[in-house]
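All the exercises in this workshop are built on plain-text protein records. Sequence and backbone structure share a record, each on its own labelled line. The question running through the whole workshop is how a given chain folds. The record below serves as our worked example for the rest of this section.
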Amino acid sequence: MTFTSIDFETATYKSHSACAVGIVTVEHGIITDEYYTLIQPPDNFYSYHNIQVHGITSKHTANADAFDELYPEIYKRLLHKNIVAHNESFDRNVLKNCISHYGLSSKGLSLHKNWQCTVQVSRNLGYFPNKLSDCCQRFNIPLQHHEALSDARACALLYLKLSEQVDSERPVLS
């Protein structure tokens, strides 16, 4: 089990408004690296609703780098990796739209196809509800919800737990 999990928080409803990212690297089933940074969104503008969700405001990101300045580090951590996210389409779209907004290259990031999604794996195993907080509670995974690194770490641990269950349900071939 080698993969990278990712979680973005956004400043507004616009998917290119990333304001935080958490990235967790898992090698052979063990978390080996974690990365977190605040990101200054375009014009450092936040919507009230998004602030209510994650608590990040323009004061927090006033001195943070913009996405294009942080992208070399993010890109390096995701390049040619198997990516996992909880509700993968959200995080994949945030990454794709931030890259597009700043005119950056996405070569090697597999943004054209779906990543592994812990929501979908959880559903396929018959678990409901599937919010990250519900899944983490089900498996006793620590979570500070809507804090990007905590969400990415929880997603990685959840994917490991769910993968164990998927593997145990596969018939053994003789």
About this structure: The helical segments are 48-54, 58-61, 67-78, 88-101, 118-124, 132-138, 148-169.
